Amino acid sequence: MSEVPASQPERFRDRAKGVVSVLRAAKASKGLLGAVLNIAGLVGLVTSVFNLVKGGDASQAVLAGALAVIAIGMGFMVYALQVQLERDRIDARGAVALRAANDPLAKSANALAFATSSLLNGKDPGIFEAQAHEFAVELAGAYTLITGARCRVTVKQTYDVEASQDLAVRTLFTSDSQFLAASQSGVDLVKENTDFSELLNKAESFWLSDDVASMPGYINSHYTREEIASGRMSYRSVLVWPVRVVTATDATGSDVDLLGFLCVDSPETGIFDKRRDVSPGQILAHSLYPSLRLYKQRTQIREAPSPA
Asked: Within 10 A of 161 (CB to CB), how many other CB atoms are there?
């Protein structure tokens, strides 16, 4: 017995179901992966519309075209919504991380206040150094919570090299005690470190890299170019703020007093988010200025030769 061909209305109804199924799939899909699948689903939509039009009259073709426009519009609307939802989820995770980091951030600020107070009260600078170490430890813990990756905090102090008058840096305190001894060997010129050099010569308030090994021309005075290019370093991501004060002058327009740098780094790549991670360190870098200014004054007095 031969099969009776379906009428045009029946073919229209059956093929329209294909269009509807694509729209339902777009609505049900979730996440960025689902959004990508929606775009793939549009290919199926075009096929469905093409089959819908085949053998149909003009009114069916117009209706099919209208369905195509609506479906494509809905597909892109769903995609945009899902992208925004994914951003909101990322922002929500960042907000949760910042709330979790509130306690170590407060402890780091408190440790810095105690360290500065010891200098104001005339205590030995060694006490400041010990308390400042606690500041670095707590801040490293805060950024570990914020980023979800192990972080290290280091404060560098600038000084002039007498033989060449070049500006150099030395590690003043760090959250990583093992790193302290290694970082204090030799003279580290600012011009031989990309992050410090650019902050010195440009009016930027921070310097960030998600992977220094992939940066063309990046240099660090503790590593060769081959070691950097191959990633054989103790860090890959780094965020640095200058510890400085800029004052206006009539002659030059501005005068910069750069005392050092606050650095947060990690062996992981791609951990920092500018919107989330820059502000906490920036505030503490400003707070470090009076501390380092007092410390510099006290250590110069301590290291001055006694009168004959």
From this structure: 12
